[in-house]
Specification:
7-stranded mixed sheet; Aspartate Aminotransferase, domain 1; 3-stranded antiparallel sheet; alpha/beta; 2 domains; single chain
Length: 408
């Protein structure tokens, strides 16, 4: 059976050009960048070239870019490393309620060390309100970490505005840009970003490699004690093939970023319009305007999410209920609860994230499958029958009356 993969926010396939660029570094060019003979120095040179490429793509200097094992490590390093190095100035951090667990659980770990963390609420679109952010800043606030774009609902946060507020108060600004890097234009200097996390496997590069940008002058503890790799701040022999692949993937993403963005945006809006037009009791989650070009996230009333995902999988449609980390657990997504969705409908949620090889036919097939699946599930739902007979009220109707947009 044909598989239609619509879960690109979880991970992406490695592009053939990227595999090709990586291959020599597993075999003939296997040298250790710390070795002084040519085989080693050649490896050091490609790592340096990759650092330069990636730094250039975000407007940073190569010395400000550190390779990590992925987005999670970059988030851990940025937040723990900064907090511990600057605890003498204050022990208060600010983040948002809708961060990835790589940030949320890191902040929770710091709370156990005696730091205080404010988890900012978001509006119904998933946007952090700049006025809430400004109001949360205290004299002892040292760091803010607000994601560039959300992995579940695709909301793009007003990063430059938030960073400007942080700087007015002497607060350092980190952003988890894993979902945005390679998809949205980013310039750390222009946007006032002091630290930024990115990951390779969300942009058609290999898994297990990412980067942390640390602006020159920002004091952060070293992350891994060991050798002199990453300027002595993160020991361990460099993942040379991974780093080469990450840089190649980023370069390819940058080369057609605008064209691919616009193509995905048209497909995304086609999917959203079809679902709103053709499926009753459905609600788009997140913002429509400030949204990643590949993200579709809906809640459906009178639906149990697990059953929906399984039936779609049986039809060859690979989608998720939110983040890969929360699927398989019965708790509703913290992101959907934070945008104000009641538990009943947060449970019946679906995320489709489109990618480079997604066609209009794929999107139509997925929406057709979704329609059939929902009709099937609702036919078996006593609650839906009661609703059709006017015996129970619809939560989505109530939300619409409360001013929630994009619901049917
Ligand atoms: C995927 C993801 C991460 C984790 O990145 P890894 O490279 O898988 O560790 C962190 N933050 C966000 C927003 C993500 O989407």
């Amino acid at each position: 059976m044909k598989q239609i993969y619509l879960d690109h926010a979880s991970t992406t396939p490695v592009r053939p050009e990227v595999v090709e660029a990586m291959l020599p570094y597993f075999t003939e060019q296997f040298g250790n960048p710390s070795s002084i003979y040519p085989l080693g120095q050649e490896a050091a040179d490609v790592v340096a070239a990759a650092r330069e490429t990636l730094a250039g793509l975000i407007g940073a200097a190569p010395r400000e870019v550190y390779f990590t094992s992925g987005g999670t490590e970059a988030d851990n390093w940025a937040i723990k490393g900064f907090a511990r190095a600057n605890a003498g100035k204050g022990k208060h951090l600010i983040t948002s309620a809708i961060e990835h667990h790589a940030v949320l659980h890191t902040c929770e770990a710091l709370e156990k060390e005696g730091f205080e963390v404010t988890y900012l609420p978001v509006d119904e679109h998933g946007l952090v309100r700049p006025e809430d952010f400004a109001a949360a800043i205290r004299p002892d606030t040292i760091l803010a970490s607000i994601m560039f774009a959300n992995n579940e609902i695709g909301t793009i946060e007003p990063i430059a505005a938030l960073a400007a507020i942080a700087h007015e108060h002497g607060v350092v600004f980190h952003t988890d840009a894993v979902q945005a890097f390679g998809h949205e234009p980013i310039d750390v200097k222009e946007m006032g970003i002091d630290m930024l996390s990115a990951s390779s496997h969300k942009i058609y590069g290999p898994k297990g490699v990412g980067l942390l940008y640390i602006r020159k002058g920002v004091k952060v503890e070293n992350f891994i004690d060991g050798g002199q790799q990453e300027r002595g701040r993160r020991g361990s022999t460099e993942n040379v093939p991974g780093i080469v692949g990450f840089a190649r993937a980023a370069e390819l993403a940058a080369a057609d970023m605008t064209a691919e963005h616009d193509r995905l945006l048209a497909l995304r809006d086609h999917a959203i319009r079809r679902i709103l037009d053709e499926i009753p009791s459905a609600k788009l989650n997140g913002s429509w305007e400030s949204r990643l070009a590949n993200n579709v996230n809906f809640s459906f009333e009178f639906i149990e999410g697990e059953g929906m995902l399984l039936q779609l999988a049986a039809r060859g449609v690979c989608v998720s209920s939110g983040s890969a980390c929360t699927s398989g657990s019965l708790d509703p997504s913290h992101v959907l609860l934070a945008i104000g969705l009641p538990h009943e409908i947060a449970h019946g949620s679906l995320r489709m994230t489109l990618g480079r090889d997604t066609t209009r036919e794929d999107v139509d097939f997925a929406v057709d499958s979704l329609k059939a699946t929902l009709a099937n599930l609702r036919m078996m739902s006593p609650l839906y029958e009661d609703f059709q007979h006017g015996k129970v009220a619809s939560v989505i109707e109530r939300l619409k009356a409360d001013g929630f947009p994009y619901a049917n």
